[in-house]
Amino acid sequence: MLGLEKKDTSLLIVVAILTMCAPFILNPFPTDSAMAQFNAGYPDLMQRFVIFGIFAIGFNILFGLTGYLSFGHAAFLGIGSYSAVWMFKLLGYNILPGIFLSVITSGLFALLIGYISLRRSGIYFSILTLAFAQMSFALAYSVLTPLTNGETGLQVYNSDPQYFHSDAMPNIPHLFGQEMQSTFKLSMGGWSFDFNTGYYICALIMLVMFYLAIRIFRSPFGLMLKAIKTNQTRLNYTGLNSRPYTLAAFVISGMYAGLAGGLMASMDPLAGAERMQWTASGEVVLMTILGGAGTLIGPVLGAGFIKYFENIFSKINDTVLHQWFAFLPDGIEDFLIAIVHPFVGKGWHLTLGLMFMAIVIFLPGGLVEGGQKIARKFRGGKAKDTTATTDSTPAE
Amino acid sequence: MDVIILQLLNGLDKGSAYALIALGLTLIFGTLGVVNFAHGALFMLGAFCAVTLQRILSLSFETIDPTKTDFLGNPAKIKTPYVESWFGPELGSSIIDWSVPLAILFAIPIMIGIGYIMERGLIKHFYKRPHADQILVTFGLAIVIQEVIKQFYGANPIPTPAPDMFKGSFDFGTLLGFDPNAVIYPYWRLVYFFFAALIIAAVFGFLQFTTFGMVVRAGMADRETVGLLGINIDRRFTIMFGIAAAVAGLAGVMYAPINSPNYHMGMDFLVLSFVVVVVGGMGSLPGAVLAGFLLGILESFSSMNQIKQILPGIDQIIIYLVAIIILLVRPRGLMGRKGVMED
Amino acid sequence: MAILEIKNVGKRFGGLQALSDVNLSVAENTVHAIIGPNGAGKSTLLNCLVGKLIPDTGSVTFQGQSLLGRKPYQINQMGVSRVFQTPEIFAELTVFENVMIPCFAARDGSFQLNALAAVRGQGDIKDTAEAILEDVKLLDKRHMTASSMSRGDKRRLEMAMCLVQEPKLLLLDEPTAGMARADTNNTIDLLKEIKEKRDITMAIIEHDMHVVFSMAERITVLAQGTPLVEDTPENIKGHPKVREAYLGEAQV
Questions:
Q1: Which residues of chain A have a Cβ shorter than 8 Å from any chain C Cβ?
Q2: Which residue segments constitute the domains of chain B, with CATH numbers given?
Q3: What are the extents of the domains in chain C?
Q4: Closest to C106 in 3D by CA, of C73, C63, C130
Q5: ipTM of the predicted structure?
Q6: Chain A residue at shortest CA distance from C78
Q7: Which of A370, A372, B252, C189 gives a 20 to 30 Å CA spacing to B315?
Q8: pTM for the full model?
Q9: pLDDT, tens digit, for every residue of C54-84?
């Protein structure tokens, strides 16, 4: 189906079902139960899941396939956001032109930055991209204030032209009149589910981008990218020019990042320079590694995982902890809370850092590899003969 | 002319910090072949050594002074640091005053210890892994260290004053025959520069004139051969890691009065220090020092008003711009060796 | 007719004159061996042929076209393939993928943005790849990851990757280095077989005299960066200069 192998088709279908049913899946607990804080099914967060999913899928096309570790991909995210907001300011709140422009401009920037950075490889490449991203950040933050509105961030004002804006259209981002913010709430018993227009638009776009990524992975082009990762010398002596391949991968992943940035601005019409900072670039690296670089589903998992825990962990404060451990004697309760406290709430980044280190050390293949290991254990002894062959087919 | 000298001087202290961090990074990269993204965190830890010592020395007990009352009418409480009660008020208060320089002694064993643990506990296992993995795991470690410090010391910068003696500024203007106050430069920054120069000289001297240093230099040039000679190079490299950590830590200790330490200062410096290392040439110690000072001074010059009027914001991007140009024109950096990281 | 013409090639590394005044021509459809003691400049010469090094002086022409200043991939596209001393393969990919890559290079040139085509839809590539794997007896191992194969199999795979492009000139850099005698003989048989089946010119750099004398039709002896003699294997065997060069090495 759709020109995919059976295995990939079923993966795509599973992902499609999961994203379409996300409002249910992410809200498994009744709203007034103690566990409700683990619900992640609110529009804002769900949008972030899929937007960062797109960002990570794109990053994986570069890093996962070619092994070129870019530390500056957030620059494209920011450029995408700025482009989209500019379209809102000039043309109006329909998100289509904004998204379109964000992909184009980030692609152009990626072409320029990639052309220069890819003249070097390895650590030099990482540092060049880092330098470019930090430079973009500094430019956006101060130098290019007329374009980016500096510290305040770029936003839409009443005085902006918005040439195609008509009074019939809503005064917030929309797609042909459908407001991104509009949410349909469904209450069933103690449960409540949010169906948000913006989320579904982002989710559909993510599915398309995921599909394209599968096609790229399975294409001769994708094969060349994998070849670059394993042995560039051999590739060059095989009559293939690695430069245009890596550049194309860089531009494609830059466009994915730009698209994610454009969507971010479409959900919340604001673009700030901090979106380009290198910590943001680091975040997408974390997502991709955590999920499993070079695998199809890994980056999506990683993005969802990090965004989920970022929200949930950072919401757990001492009051919540006291509720949890209330059944214990006071001394033990306080002791446990003292232990757990540094890792939750504002300490979420500590947990993230530790988790990340653990993954790099023990599970370089990320969550996907972990899942496969567990699955293999479950299949147990009888699968032993086949392990050799499962090892040899790259896990995707 | 006086303006130029002033900017030159202004560039020196930042340049010193860049040079010291870049020196450590290069030592680690050159000897162990590891790209250490946690090196900025070591610099930050050094600065917090200063903070910690200052806090320890200022630990006080309270006594009640019946002769005075506070604004609520209660008897006033007076805080007396333990140090003052032990050594007498004068010596005690000057010990507290000098806590930043004293922190050097405090920081050296701590930083070497941290470096040792880091190398043996973590980095060692990554020698044979790809560079990307090394970057990633040290990046994770940097986050962890940063967050731990944030837990203990909070997110706000902590002012850590230098000894009173160095509070003023030195007037280079009168010395060099310009108008008084045309070129003034804070004493502490001067101290920082000389301190950095001393450390750099010590590291180079150590590598140049000791047998240990000779082996390490040989190892940097060709690890396998030295290993074949039956010299236990790994052990020496571990010590080298400790030294690199100590250099970064000392750079941090002394930087605390210049910029109040906060938990993310390491990351801020790290990005720039990497650029410095690459500009200087991966694996070249003199290159790291040269590029550190060069970029520090360049940054300072580009923040001159006259230049900012022509090119607004240039001070923000000059380092990156220079790095990009240098990497493209001289791919090995200013003093890079052939064959380092070139596959 | 000479397919490869090397004229007055010199190369200097700092104070070391690695090659000086090398003149050599390889005739079409022959097996030409280049031998010489360690440090004679064999590898330097090879690197000058494939675009890794650029000679300081002289010229290198392949089928009348200069190779100087061309990148390795361009030289490969002209019809020169190279087998490395330690097999260079795509270790993390499967055997089949390894062979498909040169097929794509031969069909589509040095770059093509076929990002939405499916690899498995390329029937012609599959057929060619399977045929060559059959030839080198690796067809049953095609789903294995290349890194998990034995050294001998890796060597065969690398040969297959070079041959599938149907190169006009195959450069072999010590193809039997570090092999056991049995493996060496297998490799010799494989090379002979290849030679019988196709019109191909081979230039072999080799240390192992057994390999050289069982295959080569012409031999050039390189010593201290310059060709000593060039002749048929029979004449080389008894040549006093050659003995001197090798004995000289033995005494060191």
A1: 3-5, 212, 215-216, 218-224, 226-227, 229-231, 233-242, 244-245, 248, 252, 389, 391-394
A2: 2-56+102-329 (1.10.3470)
A3: 1-79+167-252, 90-166
A4: C73
A5: 0.89
A6: A239
A7: B252
A8: 0.87
A9: 888 999 999 989 988 899 999 999 999 998 8
